[in-house]
Amino acid sequence: MSDAANLAFHNLPHPRALAFLGDAVFELFLRELAVAQGLSQSRDLHDFTTRHAKASAQVALFHQLKPHLSEAELELVRQGRNVGVGTGRRSDQAAHRQATGLEALLGALALQHPQRLSELWALARPWLINPPDSEG
Fold this sequence. Notes:
CATH architecture: Orthogonal Bundle
Distance between the termini: 34 Å
Helix content: 55-70%
Structural class: mainly alpha
CATH topology: Ribonuclease iii, N-terminal Endonuclease Domain, Chain A
Order of helices and strands: HHHHHH
Number of domains: 1
Mean pLDDT: 90
């Protein structure tokens, strides 16, 4: 396990670009997880990924991961959260901003600390498979 407290980030792209990348990284993780769960029907695959990709679900995931994040990681979340982005029709602005912050962190980790990203996925995986309070 890496020492998250000693993570440093250098010369990162703009937080908006990190969130763009992080969105794709998160989507890929969800798709891999759906397949690993044995889902094979198009509808089941779609339902699984959309249930977890929505802003409210990302916020819940962030709260699960937050105790395990370093100050540098939390700072990236704050920077991403403060990026002005539009909200979806069904998403409230606060949740969307927090989800964007998580995506910015995921993008930064994918670029500079893939081992740490793998560690966070290992923490997220059980929670995503069986969230304690699933929303419909």
